Amino acid sequence: MAIEGAAASQAPASNGVMDKGLKKGAISYISNIVIGVASTAPAYSIAATLGFIVAVKGVGIYMPAVMLVSFIPILLIAVAYKYLNRADPDAGTTFAWTTRAFGPGAGWMNGWAIFLADVLVMASLSDIAAIYSFKLFGFTELGESKAAIIIVAILWIVLMTWICWKGIELSAAIQRALLGAEVVILGVFAVVALIKVYGSHPAGSIEPSAAWFDPFKMNFGDMLDGILLGIFLYWGWDSGVAVNEESEDPATGPGKAAVISTFMLVAIYLVVSAGAMAFHGPGFLENNSEDILSALGRPVLGGVLYKLLIISVLTSASASTQTTILPTARTTLSMAHWKAVHKLLGRVHKTNLTPDVSTIAMGAISIIVTVPLLLLSESVLVDSLTALGFPVLFYYGFTGFTCAFYYRHELLKSFRNFFLVGVLPVLGGLMLFAVFFKALIYYGHAANVESAPILKITLPIWFGIGGLLLGFIFMLISRPFFKEFFARHLETAQPGILEAPPLETIPAAVDF
User: Fold this and answer.
1) What share of the chain is helix, strand, coil (3-state, %, to 5)?
2) Residue-wise pLDDT tens digits, 119-141
3) Residue 193's closest CA among 180, 214, 207?
4) Under 8 Å CB-to-CB from 138, ≥6 apart: which residues?
5) d(Cα 482, Cα 343) in Å, to the nearest integer?
6) Which domains occur in the chain, in start order?
7) DSSP secondary-structure letter at 201?
8) pLDDT tens, 278-325?
9) Taking the model in full, what pTM does it have?
């Protein structure tokens, strides 16, 4: 069997991953966790999603249980990220891993899925950042002006693109500050809400019950419909792994951080959702589903402290805008170094040591997609956000299968390997693809979608499934132009990699 480097055309770096010119050792373990948590935009996700989960038939007060069940496949995929990153800490993450395990076609499609999901979410993130900027300063009329929202949304994208371009240390420092403020404010909100529920008993309040967290209280079909929305709450934690090549401990730090960040997220979501629902009951959340935190802010925290919640959502959306650009640029950077896309996307700034063209291109494409989506109706924007679930479920699910298949020769060496590296990731992948097909059926019905269908096909299907099919077409078109990449062979993990000390486990892979 022939030993290969990370790419057939480049000598591997000292750790077995081709050197892309990124700044080594710039990100600490804590920053990996922070980037992972911040990328999910907890405050924004809570404000925009809780009410819709409550509104799902049969969910209601069992909304925390839906969030708990939604966490399970995410945790299993985080385990897959941990072990795949140990073998190959490449900034391309799923793109690089699926290329090795399943071949260049699968790798290219997973790289496209990451790009597609990140582009689709940018319109919603920048829209929320703009609206909450106006809310913070009391500019009510501007907050209702589409032109003003579009201008400020563009400015947010430009600012966050510049930060990502300027340097990874600046990006990490800003993320630590923004996330710190966000988590503290959410914690204050939840604690005050629960204190008032047990103390002054606001109208409509209900004391939390253990039954809220019991998924067996729901019909399975209703729970699955809720999980379609619940998965969105957790998406983004993998951004902390995308900066692995810039991390202090690239082989183990980002992978561990991925798992820790998912536990932090479920804790945040369960505490805040329980406090929010207890204060005025599920009906209030359903009736104010478009912005839960604004609706609850004044009654929970009062007129002055209410601004804190506005700040938390603003910092959440802006932080996630930044951490959406950051991993996408590293995915396309990796694809360029693997010779899967044009080499220009692989350029790194000589001074900043950041993906130069990839970062700017992501910002520009985000603006190009954001402006028309914001010009269209609010329902179209909501449907575009729904659609991103398809590429997310696709590449998360693929990562679970990739882990087991890449390590297939190592699985039977111990029960630990078989269970942690094989069974759990595959189970996570199966769960996510089950949700994928459930979503395809659910959002294929016009009654479950905000906007009117086009040619009898709903917009989430056009954006999500259509986007993936477009990527497949681009992949086929790319094959004649990137023959070296598409001629790659399948690979498996190096023998003994899971038993070796972490510093020795960044090998070249073994040809299949």
Assistant:
1) 75, 5, 25
2) 988 888 888 888 888 888 888 78
3) 207
4) none
5) 10
6) 29-505 (1.20.1740.10)
7) -
8) 998 989 888 888 778 888 888 888 877 778 888 888 888 887 887 788
9) 0.89
